[in-house]
């Protein structure tokens, strides 16, 4: 955050070539005070949790990487020396007069108090659980309202001669390693690279690990509706086509739907492309075996459209 070349409170940069942290602030005796290269530098193609804390009453700057304290600067003349703050614009990913940062930055938070070391560690452990979901990740999807996992019990919809699909259900609040695990794949006919992050608002697919079937939906013609609510069916089928394509969106209470990449623990909605994007839906309507019916219904805003991503099985398939 700088109002010009001389007020830089706070400033956090990476040094050239080495990518070591360069944490600075402006004080009443110098425009450029702080910590220079407190470590060996950051590695390429890796996420880091970085915390910069600064306090005039406590007369110090502290730097943390992944919750670990790596450096500090302390003001020695505490009665006469002080930090100069400013109300200029906050530049993220670039500086006032430099080209900026070539990489990705996510979840920047600015606190109006100095975090304690314990708060930094707590924040790191909270964030470290939100790992990126990549193509090839093995995941589970839990229905937010009821906590039950998207699954199957092998029950089939009879859609006519030689056309049978497994019924998708939400069942059990304890993870079933056989029936609740899915693999993230690309949209039908689209080439993807396993290990690449999954972008939000993208078209993707889901392959059920145990059966090898794809998460599917289709129109309601010929009476192809769910048994209880008479809504659009959600099934699992062995045929790979555009009925397996879903748009993924992360729910955000401020802007409704978010941008960026899919992360473990995200609350998302899935929209079926082929049938004009109704959202995957479940509720407390129980089938005869006690599982929840799953359908496509609504615009994604209802609480019953929300799913929770669990990336317990994160990894790229061989």
Automatic annotation (TrEMBL):
The keyword Transmembrane does not apply. Residues 130-187, 195-251 form the MIR domain. It comes from the Eukaryota. Keywords: Repeat, Signal. The keyword Ribonucleoprotein does not apply. Gene3D superfamilies: 2.60.120.200, 2.80.10.50. Signal peptide: none annotated. InterPro entries: ConA-like_dom_sf, MIR_dom_sf, MIR_motif. This is Pmt1p.
């Amino acid at each position: 955050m700088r109002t010009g070349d001389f007020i830089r409170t706070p400033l956090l940069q990476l040094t050239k070539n080495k990518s070591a942290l360069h944490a600075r602030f402006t004080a009443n005796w110098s425009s450029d005070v702080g910590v220079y290269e407190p470590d060996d530098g950051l590695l390429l193609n890796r996420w880091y949790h970085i915390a910069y804390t600064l306090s005039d009453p406590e007369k110090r700057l502290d730097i943390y990487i992944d919750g670990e304290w790596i450096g500090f600067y302390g003001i020695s003349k505490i009665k006469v020396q002080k930090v100069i703050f400013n109300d200029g614009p906050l530049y993220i990913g670039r500086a006032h007069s430099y080209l900026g940062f070539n990489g990705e930055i996510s979840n920047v938070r600015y606190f109006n108090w100095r975090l304690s070391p314990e708060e930094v560690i707590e924040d790191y452990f909270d964030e470290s659980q939100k790992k990126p979901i990549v193509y090839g990740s093995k995941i589970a999807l839990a229905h937010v309202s009821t906590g039950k996992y998207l699954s199957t019990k092998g029950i089939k919809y009879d859609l006519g001669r030689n056309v049978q699909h497994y019924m998708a259900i939400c069942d059990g609040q304890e993870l079933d390693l056989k029936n609740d695990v899915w693999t993230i794949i690309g949209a039908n006919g689209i080439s993807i690279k396993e290990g690449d992050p999954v972008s939000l608002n993208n078209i993707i697919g889901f392959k059920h690990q145990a059966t090898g079937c794809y998460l599917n939906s289709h129109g309601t013609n010929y009476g192809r509706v769910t048994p209880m609510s008479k809504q659009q069916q959600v099934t699992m089928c062995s045929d790979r086509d555009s009925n397996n394509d879903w748009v993924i969106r992360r729910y955000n209470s401020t802007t409704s739907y978010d941008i960026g990449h899919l992360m473990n623990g995200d609350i998302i909605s899935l929209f079926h492309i082929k049938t004009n994007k109704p959202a995957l839906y479940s509720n407390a309507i129980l089938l005869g075996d006690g599982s929840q019916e799953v359908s496509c219904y609504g615009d994604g805003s209802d609480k019953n459209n929300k799913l929770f991503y669990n990336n317990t099985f994160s990894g790229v398939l061989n």
